[in-house]
Design goal:
Elements lengths: L11 H37 L11 H4 L2 E2 L3 E3 L2 E3 L2 E2 L3 E2 L3 E2 L2 H7 L1 E3 L7 E5 L2 E5 L2 E3 L6 H25 L1
Antiparallel strand pairs: 1-4, 2-3, 5-6, 7-10, 8-9
Length: 161
């Protein structure tokens, strides 16, 4: 592998402006990435959780959708969006995953699961929860608009410099 270097001589104003752009660009890029992920992906997840994929009962799952700060990686940046994290008083919303992927709920301690349906109590050995994805479809629907937004914002930042 060859190393290349460029030496700028002469125009001090140009060198200072270039240094300012290079030094501030990582911060600008992180803001752009976060806004893109939050607006286009998180926004679609919340939209899916607003009586589209799942019926809203308490709104806790919808309120748990979070865009974490951008992390710098060796080969770029990473933005994490998560659901079902700790909510309110530190309670984890364990049902976030089963709604996305489906699954079976079985009793852990007792022989039966017991719950009320309408006015009567039901006892059963397991409950099948169907897959009701709200996260994966949001990523697919929001991916292209997010990338378009990021490209446009990066171009705008470079034009302003």
């Amino acid at each position: 592998m060859s190393d290349y270097s460029v030496v700028l001589e002469g125009d001090t104003e140009f060198k200072n402006n270039l240094a300012r752009i290079v030094n501030s660009f990582p911060t600008e890029l992180q803001k752009i990435l976060w806004r893109g992920a939050d607006g286009y992906i998180r926004g679609k997840i919340v939209d899916n959780l607003t009586n589209k994929v799942l019926r809203v009962r308490t709104g806790r799952l919808r309120s748990s959708v979070t865009t974490l700060p951008v992390e710098s990686m060796l080969d770029g940046y990473s933005v994490t969006i998560k659901t079902g994290g700790f909510f309110g008083g530190g309670r984890e919303l364990r049902y976030a995953r089963i709604h996305e992927y489906g699954g079976v709920i079985r009793p852990r301690i007792k022989k039966w699961l017991a719950f009320k349906v309408g006015d009567r109590w039901v006892k059963t050995k397991k409950v099948m929860i169907p897959e009701r994805p709200y996260f994966k479809p949001a990523i697919e629907a929001g991916k292209e608009p997010m990338f378009s937004y990021i490209k446009k914002e990066i171009k705008d930042v470079l034009k302003r410099r």
